[in-house]
Amino acid sequence: MSSRERILGRVRRALADVPDDARPYEEAVAREYLREHGQRSVAQTVDLLAENLADYRALVHRCTDGELPVLLMRLLAARGSRSVVVPPGLPPHWLAAVDATRVHDRAASTPQELDGVDSVVTGCAVAVAETGTIVLDGSPDQGRRRITLVPDHHICVVRVPDQVVSSVPGALERLDPARPLTWISGPSATSDIELDRVEGVHGPRTLEVVLLSGS
């Protein structure tokens, strides 16, 4: 008998006296928790997102659509970025003012190749105000998950207020669970037993979030 068979056998024995529940999952699991904490206007929700992003040590910027190309140029120049990964569906005008070499998101790219790229610019699927979380789902303006995990600098553009929700339940309603979801709350960081914080271990060391308004 293999280890797999032994483990599954133990699971079956443990569940032997558990009655079958024919109710669908949506009915079997109670949904009585608060969907949102407090009452906020749209502007206050966006402000809360900015506050919580900054609390997680993300760098937050605000601009209009017309100002975005120049802002991205400035942010990449400030980092000294000579190369930037570009997802296939990123709006072309976003990087119209950027001089850095474009690196296309390709299935053939290796982690070593991506590690040599200075920055990545993406859109997002949704942003959660109460937790300061950015969610990526692999859509064309976000690209493959690895392009946002390997380069050391990630600029994420969030369209406000359309892509901002108050809470995690609100975000889950918008997301497809079958897609590759990446939940980002600030730059990648970890702490050892002495609580010494080290950033850039599991992803970008620097996260910059641009809150993009339409006017």
From TrEMBL:
It holds the Pfam family LUD_dom. Residues 108-212 form the LUD domain. GO terms for cellular component: cytosol. One of its GO terms (molecular function) is L-lactate dehydrogenase (NAD+) activity. PANTHER family: LACTATE UTILIZATION PROTEIN C. This is LUD domain-containing protein. It comes from Streptomyces coelicolor (strain ATCC BAA-471 / A3(2) / M145).
